[in-house]
C-alpha cells in the first residue's frame, strides 16, 4: 500500500495526517493492490479505514489496482501539474508584457527597445558574446541578460519576467548544451505565443564552437543567424532590421 499523505496511526488503528489542502498544487494518492488481504487484525482495520473513512479520502484519489496502473496515474497527474504550471507561467509573461494592467503599455519616446539575450553562463565572458552585447548597445538597444542567481525558483521567475518585458528575444547558442538550446527554443513557443504585445523579433545566434547539433539547427520559430569564430555586426543585420522597423 502507498500514500504520500498518511503518516501515523490513531487510537483504534490508523489515522491520517492530512497535508495542507489549501495548496492546489498538492495531490494525494492512496494506493493498494486490488487483491490486498491481511490476516492481521490491525492491518485489516487499517485497510478498512483507508477504504471507508471519508476524511482520509478527502482531497485524495484512492486507487486499487496493480503497480503499472499506479505508474500510469502518477504520470497523468504529473502531466496535469506541468500543464497548469505552463499556463500560469504563460499568463505571468503576458501580465508582465502588459504592465500587469491587462492592456499593452506604450513605450516612452526615450525608452530603448529591450532585447532579452538568452545565453549559457559560460558565454557571458566570451569575446564574441561581449562584442554582440556592445553591438546592441551601440545600436541603441538595451540587452537584458539572464540572472546569475543560483536559486532555481528565482532564476525561473526572472526568466519569465524577462520574456514578458522584452521587445525582442535572441538565443545565443555558444557554450550551451543541445538540451539547453532546445529548452530555450521551447520557451519561445510556450511563453511568447499569443503574448500581447508580441515581440518584434526572435533570433537564434549560433556561435562557436561548432557541433553537429548546431549544424542541424533549423527552425521557423526564429531567424537563424550563423556566426563565425569572431562576431561580425553584419551577421546580426537581419535581426537589427526588424528592431529598426519597430522603433521607427
Short description:
The protein is an alpha/beta fold and 248 residues long.
Report on the structure:
The protein has 248 residues and is an alpha/beta fold. The protein has 2 domains: 2-97, no CATH class; 114-247, Toll/interleukin-1 receptor homology (TIR) domain (Rossmann fold), CATH 3.40.50. The chain has helices at 41-52, 54-57, 67-97, 127-138, 152-165, 178-192, 212-216, 237-247; strands spanning 2-3, 8-10, 13-15, 28-32, 60-64, 114-119, 142-144, 168-173, 201-206, 223-226. The strands form 3 sheets. A 5-stranded parallel beta sheet has the order 7-6-8-9-10, sandwiched between helices. Strands 1-4-5 form a 3-stranded mixed beta sheet, with no helix packed on it. Strands 2-3 form a two-stranded antiparallel ribbon. Helix 4 (127-138) links the parallel strand 6 and strand 7. Helix 3 crosses helix 5 (152-165). It is elongated and about 80 Å long. Mean pLDDT is 80; it is low at 1-19 and 100-104.
User: What summary fits the major beta sheet?
Assistant: 5 strands, parallel
Q: How many structural units, i.e. domains?
A: 2
- Percentage of residues in strands: 15-25%
Radius of gyration: 26 Å
Number of helices: 8
CATH topology of the largest domain: Rossmann fold
What is the name of the CATH superfamily of the largest domain?
A: Toll/interleukin-1 receptor homology (TIR) domain
Listing every helix as H and every strand as E from the N terminus to the C terminus, the arrangement reads: EEEEHHEHEHEHEHEHEH
Global geometry: elongated
Strand order of the largest sheet: 7-6-8-9-10
User: In angstroms, what separates the terminal alpha carbons?
Assistant: 66 Å
Low-confidence stretches: 1-19, 100-104
User: Average pLDDT across residues?
Assistant: 80
Query: Structural class, from helix and strand content?
Result: alpha/beta
List how many beta strands DSSP finds.
10
- Name of the CATH first level of the largest domain: Alpha Beta
Share in helix? 40-55%
Architecture (CATH level 2) name of the largest domain: 3-Layer(aba) Sandwich
Amino acid at each position: 500500500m502507498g500514500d504520500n499523505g498518511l503518516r501515523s496511526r490513531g487510537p483504534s488503528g490508523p489515522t491520517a495526517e492530512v497535508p495542507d489542502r489549501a495548496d492546489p498544487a498538492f495531490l494525494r494518492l492512496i494506493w493498494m493492490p486490488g487483491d490486498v488481504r491481511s490476516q492481521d487484525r490491525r492491518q485489516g482495520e487499517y485497510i478498512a479505514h483507508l477504504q471507508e473513512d471519508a476524511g482520509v479520502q478527502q482531497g485524495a484519489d484512492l486507487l486499487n489496482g496493480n503497480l503499472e496502473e499506479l505508474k500510469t496515474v502518477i504520470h497523468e497527474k504529473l502531466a496535469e501539474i506541468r500543464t497548469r504550471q505552463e499556463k500560469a507561467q504563460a499568463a505571468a509573461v503576458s501580465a508582465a508584457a502588459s504592465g500587469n494592467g491587462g492592456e499593452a503599455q506604450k513605450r516612452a519616446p526615450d525608452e530603448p527597445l529591450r532585447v532579452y539575450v538568452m545565453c549559457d553562463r559560460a558565454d557571458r565572458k566570451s569575446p564574441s558574446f561581449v562584442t554582440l552585447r556592445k553591438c546592441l548597445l551601440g545600436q541603441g538597444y538595451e540587452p537584458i541578460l539572464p540572472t546569475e542567481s543560483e536559486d532555481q525558483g528565482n532564476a525561473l521567475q526572472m526568466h519569465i519576467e524577462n520574456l514578458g518585458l522584452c521587445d525582442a528575444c535572441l538565443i545565443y547558442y555558444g557554450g550551451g548544451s543541445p538540451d539547453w538550446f532546445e529548452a530555450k527554443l521551447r520557451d519561445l513557443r510556450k511563453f511568447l505565443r499569443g503574448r500581447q504585445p508580441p515581440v518584434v523579433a526572435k533570433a537564434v545566434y549560433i556561435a562557436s564552437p561548432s557541433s553537429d547539433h548546431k549544424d542541424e539547427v533549423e527552425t521557423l520559430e526564429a531567424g537563424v543567424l550563423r556566426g563565425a569564430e569572431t562576431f561580425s555586426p553584419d551577421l546580426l543585420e537581419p535581426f537589427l532590421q526588424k528592431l529598426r522597423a519597430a522603433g521607427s
